[in-house]
Amino acid sequence: MTTAETRPVRNPRSVISYSEPAAPLPPGLVPRNPGMPLDLGWVRDARVNRSAVERRAATIPTRRSIKTAWQAGWLLRAITLIDLTTLQGDDTPGRVRRLCAKARQPVRADLLESLGMQDVGMRVAAVCVYHAFVRTAVEALEGSGIPVAAVSAGFPAGLTPFKTRLAEIEASVADGAEEIDIVITRAHVLTGNWQALYDEVRAFRETCGAVHLKAILGTGELATLKDVSRASLVAMMAGADFIKTSTGKESVNAVLPVGIVMVRAIREYRERTGHCVGFKPAGGIRKAKESLDWLAMMKEELGDRWLRPDLFRFGASTLLADIERQLEHYITGRYSAAHRHPLA
């Protein structure tokens, strides 16, 4: 019987020929979404066939089987799309620094060497933290090129006074955040007050200045898929650079039916305006297999261009550890213990 140490290692260098993950694109390669005046006719005309969306979502995990080198290549791509996140009440500067160290080297060096990927500069897309830890993260990531994303604007409820939310965005930008994840007031969606939602997101966008804005819709707290579609359109009209599913604090977070509705709104917005908007599912994506489902959805609904970090992100804290375990299984044929993988 062979052990993990003596078992012959498969030759996975063909990963590169199948799906070598692209390095994060330089800032500004995709022009920012400038937004547009609120078009209430377009918003009110939005319709969603729920049964069709749910049938489509059900086919995504079942219609294909990605194995061996193909799977390893897609998982490596997924790593480059992760906003590595810690948003806990017991966060400390030490935990944030450990997370940043993991962001710099998301996969163990021996695994990358076995995969023939030791020279590609593998890294995650960003590190996402509360405002209180922005400066800590910026210092820990200095020289890496990895941006810091700050959750702001009264995260996660979005119910603090409006001036306080704007001030929090300003403070995060001043501390060095290059991306701001804001949360919308869900009441504006639930009551159909689209002008108020537009004005809110537009004010957040103007306060961000040159810093990219991701608008969190909190889809688990919206009433219908039609509301998800309409909120997506309004946020994009107001100038959001990304639309994001969830805070990760709702009872229901990122699910494929919601993702389909949001990316189809992105597609419609691009067809009408010519502007590209990114998409970020967040909350509850913990398994490597789930990341493959989301990647398949993006490829089929929006195309390969939306498989790069300037237009697609995973908001996740534990996903990376499972991806690393799957990569080790691909190389050795055995699943490793959790303690073999540093904080993720």
Summarize the structure.
This protein is of the alpha/beta class and 344 residues long.
Structure in words:
The chain is an alpha/beta fold and 344 residues long. The protein contains 14 helices and eight strands. It has one domain (38-340): Aldolase class I (TIM Barrel, Alpha-Beta Barrel), CATH 3.20.20. It has an eight-stranded parallel sheet with strand order 7-6-5-4-3-2-1-8. Helix 7 links the parallel strand 2 and strand 3 (148-152). The protein is globular.
Keyword list:
344 residues; alpha/beta; TIM Barrel; 8 strands; 44% helix; 10% strand; globular; disordered N terminus
* CATH-assigned fold name: TIM Barrel
Number of helices: 14
Number of domains: 1
Q: How many E-type strands?
A: 8
How many angstroms does the end-to-end distance come to?
33 Å
Shape verdict = globular
- Strand order across the largest sheet: 7-6-5-4-3-2-1-8
CATH architecture: Alpha-Beta Barrel
The overall pLDDT average reads: 90
Round the Cα radius of gyration to an integer and report it.
20 Å
**Secondary-structure content class:** alpha/beta
Q: Give the percentage of residues in beta strands.
A: 5-15%
Note the quaternary state here.
Answer: single chain
H/E topology pattern: HHHHEHHEHEHEHHEHEHEHEH
> Can you identify the CATH superfamily?
Aldolase class I
